[in-house]
Structures are given as C-alpha cells and as structure tokens.
Amino acid sequence: MNQYRRDNKMKPIQLAVAMLVGGFAVGAYAQQAQESDKQVEKVFITGSNIKTIDSETASPLQILKREDIVRQGVTNVSDLIANISASSSQGNLTDIGGSNSFAPGGTEASLRNLGAQSTLVLVNGRRIATFGFANFTEVFSNVDSIPIDAVERVEVLKSGASAIYGSDAVAGVINIITRQNYQGVEVSADTQKSIQSHKFGTSKASITAGFGDYANDGFNVLVNADLFKRQSVMWSEVQQYTNPALIATSPNFGALSTYSHGNLIDGANSTPLPGCDPGLIRGGLCKYNRSQQYQAIPEATRSNFYSTGTFNLGDGTQAFAEVSYSKGKTNYISPVPLYGAQSPTTWGNPSTGQPLTFNYLGLAANDPINTTGDDGAEIRLRFLDAPSYNNVEGTQYRVLGGLRGSFKAFDWEAAAGVMGSKVTSTSQGTFSSSGFIKEIGDYNNFYGNTNPNVGLSYNATDPNFFNQPGGYRAGGTNSASVLNTLFPVYFSTGKTQAEFADAKISGPIYNLPAGPINVAFGAELRHESMVLDDSNNLKTGDIVGYGISEANSSRNIESVYSEFSIPVLKNLEVTPALRLDKFPNLSAHFSPKLAALYSPTDSLKFRATIEHGFRAPNLIESANSLKFAFDPGVQDPLRCAAATQLQNDLNKAAANPALTAQQAALISARALAVQGNECSASIPDEVKNNPGLKPETSKSYSLGIVFEPVKGYATTLDFFSIDRSNVIGLQGAQQLLNQASVGATPAGSIVNRRPFNTAADQSFLSNDAALGGQNDFTTYGVTAGAVQDIIRAMQNISEQKTSGIDIAFLGKQSLGQFGSLRETLDGTYTLKFYDTSVSTLSDNLVGSYYIPHFAANFTLVWDFKSFSNSLRYNYTGGFSEQAGQQDTNWNAAGCAANNLTPAQCHVASHRTTDYAISYNGIKNLTLGLNVINVFQQKAPIDIKGFGLGATYGTNLQDAQGRILNLSANYKFY
C-alpha cells in the first residue's frame, strides 16, 4: 500500500499556491527544453509575461503604431486615447474641464465606460504614478504627463488583466511603449488653430536624440524633451458659433445679466449704482455680458522630459534605466462672485463638522448706499474687480533601473524604482467669511423682510452694510488690501509616491510533442503613500461654499504571479495565469485567468479568455479623511416642476406691454433666479469614508476570431463581457434626491431640507405682486422646503455589467506605379451596459445618455512617392437624453413638461471627417498638414449637456469648427 495518501480533490488555495510555485519546482528541468530557433526576436506583448513573436495573442489587443499616431494630428496622449473606439467619453476628467473638480490639471483614461480606476495605464509595461490630486475619491494616472513624441506605439489590451498586472486592470490596459534603440537627432514642431474662429491655438515642439547602436556599440541612450502650450479662450470670443437649435431651447441665451457693475433692485425704484457705463444701461438697469467671465478652454503649458538607456554588460546581461519628468501648469479663469437674491449658501467647517450658512441680505432703509429709501432693497452685484483665478502646477516623475539577461533558455529581469506626483492648486476670488464681515458687514445680523416686491427673505440690521468705513465700495475703486481680505488666496496640495521592486523570469520548462511549455513567474513589492492637504482658511470653512478633500495614508502591497503557455496541439495553445495580491486589512486575493488560441489554418484563428479580476479600495476610499463638496446642477424633484411653471408664468407676465422696461426686466430676472434655485441648484454634500470596504471583483470573458482569407486583409471580431460586483462609489446626488422624494432613501444617506416656511422661501411668495398677488405655494402645490444639504456614505454600492463586440479590419494592397493603399477599421458595438448605481439590472443603459451602441473610425491611407495621404472618418452613434429609466427628468413626461419634443430629447449620431497629408521629398525633412473636421460638421444637439435655460456657452466642436494643424520634422542624422 502506498504510504502517501492521494486526495482526489485539491482545495482551491492549495491549487493556487501550487500553480504559483510550480514554475520554481520545474525550473530545475529547464536544461531539457532549449529553444530550437532564435532567428526571429521575441518581445513581450501587453497582457503576458511570456515573450512571443506573434502580436495576435489569445487576448484581444489593439496596436497603434507611430505612423498611425502622427496621422491623427493629435498633440498629446490624452487626445490619442480618446480616439480609440473602446475609450469612454462621458464623465471623464480632463484638464480642460477640470476647473471645478477636486483634481484640476489632470486627464484620466477610461475604457468600456467603467471609469478610470478600472483602466490601468502603463509605460513600457510598468505603472506610472497616480496624479497628486484625487478627483474627490477617485485616483488616476495623468496621461498628459507622457510625451507623445517619445512614443513608439500604444498597445490597448481590451480584456481584463488582473492576473498579469494586479489591481485596476478590470476593463483593460493601455500600455505606452517608448522608442527603443533609436539613433539620430530630430526636432519636430507643430501648431494648430481653428480656421473658423482663429482661436484654440495649440503649439508643441520637441527634440529627440538617440545615441549608440546596441548591437554594434553595446549601448543605446534615448533622450526626449518637449514643450506644449495651449491658449485660453473665453466663451464671449466664440459664442457667435452656437448652434441656433440650441439657442431655441434657451430663451435667455445671450441675455445680459443684471448682476453687473451693480444695481439696486426695489420694484419701480430700482436703479443702477453710480459709475455704470451708460452704454451698458438697458431697461433702466446696469447690464453685463456674463460670457466674458466664463472660460471655454484654459491656458496650459507643459514640459516633459524622458530618457532611457540600455547597456550591454556582457554574457547576455544588460543594464537599463529610465527617467521621466513632467511639469505642467493650467491657468483657469474663474467667474467672479455674485451677490443678490440667491438662496443661502450652505457648506461646512471641516475642523468642527458644523454646517455654515451664508445669507444674502437686502439693505436696511437707513443704509447710506440704499438710495431707494425702501427697507429691504436688494443689491445685485458682480464683483468685477475680484482677483479671480485658479492656477494649478504639478510635477510627475518616475526613475527606475534594473538588470535583464538570459540564463540558459530563460530570460530574467529585475528592477526597482520610485515614482510620484505633486500638485498645487492656488486660487483667489471667493468670499472669505471673515473677510466679508470685515469689509462689507455681518451677514448673520438680519431681520425678516416683508416687502413682496423684493423677493428677499431678510434684511441687514447694519446701516453700513456694503458701506463699512474703509471697507469694500460697491461700484467704486477698491484697494488691493481690501480685495485680498475679501477674496484671500487659498490652496490645496497633493502628493503621491510609490517605491517598487519587481522581478520575473520566463522560459521553456518542458518539451511537448507540439512544442515547449513556457512559464513566467515573478513577484512585486510596492509601497504607496498619499497626502492631501488644504490651506487653513479651507480647513476652518472660512472660504464660503468650498469643501476640502484631505488624507494622509500609506500601504504596502505584495504580489506573486505565474503564467504558463502550453502547446496542447500544434495549433492549440492554452495559457493559464494566476496572481496573488496582498493589501493591508484585506484577505489575499487570487486572480486567475485562462486563455486559449486555436489556429486551424495560417489564416484563421480562434481565441478565448476567462478571468476573475479585482480592484482594491484606494487610499482615499479606505482611509480616514475629510470631504465636503457641492453638487451643481441638481433638480429638486419636489420643487422643480413648480418652479418651472412659476418661471413660465413670470416670463409671460414680463411680456405684458403695459409694464415699463424696468418692471419687465425685474420680473424676468426673478424668473431666471427661480429656475436656478430649484432646477439647477448647488447642493452641499458631505461624504463619509468606509474603512471596511470590500474589493471590487469582476468576471470577464472574451471570444474572438482572427481571419485573413487573403494575404494583407485581416479581420478580427471579439465578443467581450465584464461583470463587476461590489463596485465602490457614491450614489448620485440627483438619484438620492429622486429616491428621497418617494421615501426610499438608502441606508447611510440623508437628505436634509429647510423647514417649510412661506415667509422665508427664496423662490415662492405667499403674495406674488408680479402675478396679481397670488399665493405661489397654493397655486403650484409647493409643500416642501428647499434642499439644505445631503450626506452620502461611501460603500460597495452597485454592480456593473457590459458586453459587446470589438471589430477591426486591416487591409493593404499595392497599386503598382501609383503607390499603395491601406485601410483600417476600429469599432466597438456595445450590446449591454447595466449599472445599479444608475438604474436596475433589468435596465439596459446602452442607447441612453452618452452610452451609444456603436463607435468606430475608418482610415484610408494612400502612399504615393513622397506623399502620404489619409482620410479618417469618425462615427459615434446617437443616444437618448434619458440616463436610465429612473431619470424621470428626461423621460417622455419630463421632456413634455419642459416643452421639448421627442426628437429634441434624443442626441443624433456624431460624424466627423479628418484629412492628413505628409511630404518627405526633401532629405531629412517631413512636412505635415492635418485638417480636423474637414467639413466643419456641427456636433449633434445635446440639450441636456448644454443646459435648459443656458445663458452662455456652446459646444466646443461648434466653436472650433475646422482645425488646421501644421507640422515639421527634421532629422539631422
């Protein structure tokens, strides 16, 4: 009898450990398996740690080569990634639109609509630093820090890769591969600008130098440096290009604002403050074009440095090193603050956790600035002399070094390094609570107002409100000292850093009849830290309406992995992989993957993958931190419909020919304020962290076919499916309000409303003089107080499922004396997308707001003598304005309530065409011309994105129109 017991089944954890260490156990037999042919160099392809000579692996992979990148006319990596069909667009943070985010100055990447934290960005197969700021609770890699002229190719793995790379690779991997073994010196420059508006100027210049031929000289060093600059554009400069169909849905578009140099609002006694430009007085009031203060594109400058070197140490061993450093600055122009008949601003004091309220008061009758003589006159003011800006400066770096080589038939590599990011956001132009009290007056000292013509609830008791001795002078000249006290500088800083060490070895371990079994195994250690801090005036809540996001945490992460490539048959290869990751306070997590590639003929391949992935909570989600914020553009489900009816009635009343121009202007201004208070409000939001969060987990699989019936014509079709559970997040503020309105507030979340008080309401009046003295509360059925604030608990809140088909085509044919022709197609057809944080698992969100069924681009390239021409057609399918069935604001009934037709509540498909031509007929010189949006096609009408009742702005594509990019590249040797 055998003295060893044989179990029929092995426990899962035992099997996992056995597989992880299996490579070590059989490594002793490596001498039995030697590579028989090394004529073709093998390289690592994204998604595997085993070298291969074939880019068509079991996992679907898209490769963008350098010439493809140049033809697109993009000036940075972020625009390149955005052009990938599998790339998400809705909600992605960019440095262009990040002024009101917690992470201004950064740009993230996202695949499959699953968010930046599910997309792993690598450079040469290794992680890059996370951005110094967290976008509230989301951490991400800033892809703007990667110099595009140093890029050789981009590999996009469109399936999960947690088993290979660990956490964050649920939706896929974007691997930026830099130039290798480059010799020579070249300089390049390009500039682009809108042909239509002559705005949106962008310029870039770079130098790339490579020294040494590794094969002959035993070393190669590459150095790249580039400079990028983008001009600022204000909406007032391009507002004329707004699509008329958008303006038709916004009757107030382009209307001048009574928030200006200054006005006293008191019915028939309303009058401008002294000093208003007579040319700006309309209808008896001082007006202002608000689009002058709103920025379409922020100014930005970036400088990137990248260097890599490889050195032959002999005996098949080489040393390598890599240094990258990026410095960027984005200058946002912030709208100056307003003062007038607004709802009180509620925020919080992070140091005490207590709520704070800023009250907008009317003037007392005896206030010297109140020339109307009436108690409760409103002062309506835009602080045009406020120093209003937000300048963001950031750096990002990565330094690493290592050794790689061969031992017998095995390749090995080990490296260590450090990477990090530091960002500072410096701002000015928002009220200081203490400064306002000192320079203008105490907004807490007030008494009730009974004047129904004013629409304010409270008046200041201070007779010198807005007229303090030595204080701020509305409409007058103010010293820098006064302005800096009223609008002090405040700042936030963020710093991330990671030190890492990794090692791996790969090679054949055993010969099967169909070929050698190859194995790769390795380990990685990483220490991550994040520190977010704010200026003292933010910490104490002195900056009115502003929140904070602070953290100070770190962790160690350990991982080991193993991967096998097993040729079961001559034409069937199976690749199992397993990775173990250990995060603090979490159980060790195993991520298995199984992939298979079957090649019945040289022109036909079938492939499949199945994987369990995960994402561990980041340092913001799982750490103790303070978070206060505002949610803008929120509609109150209990009051917005009534406010819309009131707004319509007020606009009708303002059209009464019996009214004076001044009376009509006052009623119209109130109508606008009502709509903003209830249908586009900013809601204070407190977020609670949860140290007990579970990791997000995923199950994904893909099935694909690669078909090349004729040499030079290849088609790939890959079905993908991703099911992500325990998704960490926050319930949307609008969704929370909608649920609370029907008594379905989820556990841990709270909606606080102001007490229902008809005498203190900011939108509705019990005696509305503009509407014949009616009781607005009774007329419109208002029974709830306005929303005061919300509290949301972070949790494993939802599940996401998505599936679809990736389509690719590559064709190439010779035209003889007329050159050659190439065609490429990159498309993604999304079949299903479910997200329980938005709706239910029975509600397929594909076809709803910003989740189209189909996105694709087709490129035709004609190379003829010294010319290369390319025509690129970009297509994104249409979608509904409704974001899931629970979005009642944009369903059929909601659209009808807003006087919108079904066609207006649907965004049509989006199409643009680009053209590029390059000429290299002059020695060492290449000239290029790119025309983006050749036919100057306008963007489809998106009323929701534009905003109902919008008063300024347009779609960026409409404003840019046709863009011309000119480039030159000169290679010295």
UniProtKB/TrEMBL annotation:
TonB-dependent receptor plug domain mapped to chain residues: 55-173
Listed name of the protein: TonB-dependent receptor
Signal peptide start and end residues: 1-30
Bilayer topology: Multi-pass membrane protein
Main location: membrane
PANTHER family: PTHR47234, TONB-DEPENDENT RECEPTOR (PTHR47234:SF2)
Domain TonB-dependent receptor-like beta-barrel, residue spans: 495-934
Location(s) in or outside the cell: Cell outer membrane
Superkingdom in the source lineage: Bacteria
Keywords: Cell outer membrane, Membrane, Receptor, Signal, TonB box, Transmembrane, Transmembrane beta strand, Transport
Gene3D superfamilies: TonB-dependent receptor, beta-barrel domain (2.40.170.20), TonB-dependent receptor, plug domain (2.170.130.10)
Family statement: Belongs to the TonB-dependent receptor family.
GO cellular component term, pick one: cell outer membrane
